Structure of Phage gp6-like head-tail connector protein:
Amino acid sequence: MVLTEGAPVAEAVLPVAEFRDHLRLGRGFADVGAEDAALVGYLRAALAAIEGRTAKALLARAFTLSLPRWRWGDMQTLPIAPVSAVAELRLIDSAGAVSVADRASWRLVQDMARPRLVAVGALLPRIPTDGRVEVAFTAGFGPAWADLPVDLAQAVFLLAAQYFEFRHDSAGDGAGMPFGVSALIERWRTVRVLGGGA
């Protein structure tokens, strides 16, 4: 299984000004542009860390899941939520020829923990021998920062602030997520069973 992100979150969507206010940083100085570039990096790092811990895409964007076979013949879970739409299933044979699966043969079941594709008939479309399927979908709470649940947005700010505060500390504390961040994201975490495939 390979999950790829179509494009990173656009910088214009990131709440740099709000994060600057959160940190109580000044404005109007000559080096504000360079500082804002660093703040974007801290926000991106915090987003990635929280998405990794929760298996949630915070801001909506396109993803592609590539699979050599379905985990179950009639159902396949998607590794990240919330999924708002599946654009298509591309069936790719061993020679690289692509065909698009009939939309009438599958449907998306939206779920905050385990979104999944479900066969409309007995089985999902057949993946070619020695080939793969690519599932193109959109995941995320929405395209704007305001679409995020308040607790997840606050967790991003808290974690990004920690990255900012310890930016010169090469040793770091190695403790992982701060308690406040962990408490905020705990209810959003997906419990994995059956080796992560459920």
The chain has two domains: 11-58+144-196, 61-139. Confidence is low (pLDDT under 50) at residues 194-198. The first strand starts at residue 2 and ends at 5. The helical segments are 16-23, 32-54, 150-165, 179-185.
